[in-house]
Amino acid sequence: MLLTLRCVEPQDKALALGLIYFAIGLFGNVPCPIIYGAVVDSACLFWEESECGERGACRIYDPTKFRMYFHGITAAIMLGAFVVDVIVWYKSDSIQFHEDEDISLPKDTMAAEVSRCTQFETSV
């Protein structure tokens, strides 16, 4: 996120942050329950059948299979994130940063402001 804030023009920072949070929600929060739901379902040994003959809830899980699939998919996702981090680190030398505009007052104006404020405080 800090990289994005430093690489985007100052007037586009709000839009950039909005797009990042949208992408996180779309690619992180939407597929996660689907992927892990499939992992949980793949470790089922005995499915309950409804009266209509459809598959219902899982009654017995294979704990070894569940553990291997669950930690395996988590490790694969984390490995992918690590690879992306390494690529960003490798390419970071070629990134051009945009500096924020300096909105500080000139020194003479600051001195006048300070003296005016202190005069007001002492006269009260």
UniProtKB/TrEMBL annotation:
TM spans (from-to): 20-47, 68-90
Q: Which UniProt keyword terms apply here?
A: Membrane, Transmembrane, Transmembrane helix
Q: Please report the name of this protein according to its UniProt entry.
A: Solute carrier organic anion transporter family member 1A4-like
Gene of this entry: LOC111083641
